[in-house]
Design goal:
Helix content: 10-25%
Number of strands: 7
Shape: elongated
Radius of gyration: 26 Å
Number of helices: 1
Strand order of the largest sheet: 2-3-7-6-5
Oligomer: single chain
Amino acid sequence: MKKNHLKNRIIQKICVAVCPFIMLLCVFTGCYDYPIDEDGLLITERSQCFVSSFELLGSDFQTVRTKNAVVDTVACTIDVEVFYATDLTHLWPQFTLVTDAKLEPKITGWTDFSDLTKPKQYTVISGNRKVRKTYTINLSVQKP
């Protein structure tokens, strides 16, 4: 009987010491309601909105670029040259964006870049979802 009473007193003292700490921790960390967008992504306070790099992969998942793409964050353009005889109907674009930004339309598969007269456009949306910048991809093919 004395053992059970002693155990209960020890558990009671631990609870008295630890419970207020756990409650404070919950108040400062667990009770903030983080907003998320329609894609389930966290909306932050970041207003930056730009592409930092661009890659273009062929059907073998290897680059088809002849050199690094030129990303102009002021003019919102991406100039990229691909190797001669590249299958432009089956390319996979890859963007590196500033932290917390997202891209529209989403890249969900292979993209057809074969109509060079109509450059593809993608919109970068800032982390706070208030700034939108549309980038135009100017694709050219290496001369034979």
